[in-house]
Amino acid sequence: MAKSPKISASHEPGGLIVHISGLLPSLSPAEQRVARLVVADPADAARRTITDLATAAETSEATVIRFCRSVGMDGYPQLRIRLAAEAARRIEPPDARVVGGDIPPGADLAQIIATISFNDARAVEETAEQLDPAVCEQVVEAIVSAGRIEVYGAGASGFVASDFQQKLHRIGRIAFSFPDVHTALTSAALLGKGDVAIGISHSGTTSDVIEVLEQARSRGAVTVALTNFPRSPITERADFVLTTAARETTYRSGAMASRLAQLTVVDCLFVGVAARNRARARRALEVTAEAVRTHRVGGSRRRS
Amino acid sequence: MAKSPKISASHEPGGLIVHISGLLPSLSPAEQRVARLVVADPADAARRTITDLATAAETSEATVIRFCRSVGMDGYPQLRIRLAAEAARRIEPPDARVVGGDIPPGADLAQIIATISFNDARAVEETAEQLDPAVCEQVVEAIVSAGRIEVYGAGASGFVASDFQQKLHRIGRIAFSFPDVHTALTSAALLGKGDVAIGISHSGTTSDVIEVLEQARSRGAVTVALTNFPRSPITERADFVLTTAARETTYRSGAMASRLAQLTVVDCLFVGVAARNRARARRALEVTAEAVRTHRVGGSRRRS
DNA sequence: GCCACGGATGAAACTTACTTTCATGAGCCG
DNA sequence: CGGCTCATGAAAGTAAGTTTCATCCGTGGC
């Protein structure tokens, strides 16, 4: 097992912009200024010369080049071209939806709904676009052949972890998730070769989750990280890194788009695992559905 | 500078490629060779350097520049960027997304990802579209002025319930959610006028949730139902009904799109509530974020 | 047939853009 | 408080793009 996680350097099929904003926190301050300009208006950036862009970002050309390299480009010209292409593709934002920004103070419910759903949907789409099928495949493979699967997450990511655990469990995989660190650590210590440990953290900096993942890895389990930031600490403890692409409206507003993005990844993995053995999975799903049938009341004649 | 050819300067409506091939015959032989290369593969041309392209067209750089001017560009860099943009736009649509349907048996991960995310994103968008702002407003109002809020859900909807509870709690509302029916029933029995009870059930037929909601209502609490089916049993016990619009890929495949749709509604209500008292909500969010700060590891900066 | 003329063309000079190197200085760890 | 690492921009160096200009070739007039 390779020790360095696959950040899929050259693989950012979905969006370069998405890729860049994911990398943003791992960039140096000066590079971040450049990145922000680029993300804010890719088309405009593509039009600028390197000197021009450097000046606009209040830095030197050298830093712009470094930025190019940091996001996986060969040099500035390549970045320019990619940006132009990217910008052309995303001619979409037609209406004045508050993209990525905060909710304006005087907003009414209709505005709030439009903004939230737009950002949520976008997070889902962009996450899917930049998800690397090859890495997913390997993770699915690991899960399918795992003796035991453990999923870790804290706070909002904890619900996602539980959701994943529940899904895996429903199709007959032996999966666990934990409400607290101690239990998780204890359990992780009992993992071994062939087991799978999945850590979920939007920021990639949740020490509890990192710690548990580290523990799991030291016991020989295959480790997977699910985070929004491909260069965050958690990725160093993971054999496989899966990234989401959520730009939270406001960082502290409680996870909103981020957990939807995480759940989308969970869905993909889940279906991927289920698809490996359709018959068995289907049977399991039917059995479990049957089990709760008596907890449903009849005529839901839905004709929505 | 009077001698340059007068071609429709900067405005070539249809497409740059179309434009170029249109005036191809009016170009000099050497320029035509360049033009043909460009038209044949714009994306490739965009990647080439001027020297490279000149060589490929068996001509000199000077001619390439002349060609740029002939088609109305300022210079080679501009042409490059326009070409990249053009190329990006024209290969977009042919995307074999598996819409709405089930995942085909032989599907690979890339297909799965496309299908899932498409349906997930759609569920979010469609839910937002049909969500009634007026009803949301009333629910928000009820939550804001509630003495206590309880959220019920079973299975996958249980996670959504917990998520909502956690969010409300974070902004200082007194909210609860429950892992089992008994506790929930007990708690619901203690609700009274001015309290709010929210029941979440995708199918709208989960008897446990219905039962608890009924209990809450009988105690005078305001009841809210969140379901995908506006005519389902749960709606009969609710003062306010909020609906999601998820079409699950496969009914029994475990809730996927449905919970994303539910979470979107949760997000909207949450932001709606938070917006009612920005200052207080913001302060609460900051305090809670600070509380977990020591559980985050710092410097995510790294270079590959 | 010879000679002006003009457009097309590429070589080379030139300019600008891009890239690398290196010295500096800030922050961090022991 | 040294001795590190790392981020950064100035400046040197290289490559890309642009201009200039001499040449070439075909044309048409004499």
From TrEMBL, chains A, B:
Stored SUPFAM superfamilies: Homeodomain-like, SIS domain
Record GO biological process: carbohydrate derivative metabolic process
Recorded GO MF terms: carbohydrate derivative binding; DNA binding; DNA-binding transcription factor activity
CDD domains the UniProt entry points to: SIS_RpiR (cd05013)
Alphabetical list of InterPro entries matching this protein: Homeodomain-like_sf (IPR009057), HTH_RpiR (IPR000281), RpiR-like (IPR047640), RpiR-like_SIS (IPR035472), SIS_dom (IPR001347), SIS_dom_sf (IPR046348), WH-like_DNA-bd_sf (IPR036388)
Gene3D superfamilies assigned: Glucose-6-phosphate isomerase like protein, domain 1, Winged helix-like DNA-binding domain superfamily/Winged helix DNA-binding domain
Keywords linked to the UniProt accession: DNA-binding, Transcription, Transcription regulation
HTH rpiR-type domain: residues covered: 14-90
Domain SIS: 139-279
PANTHER family xrefs: GLUCOKINASE, HTH-TYPE TRANSCRIPTIONAL REGULATOR HEXR-RELATED
Stated name of the protein: RpiR family transcriptional regulator
Source organism of this protein record: Micromonospora wenchangensis
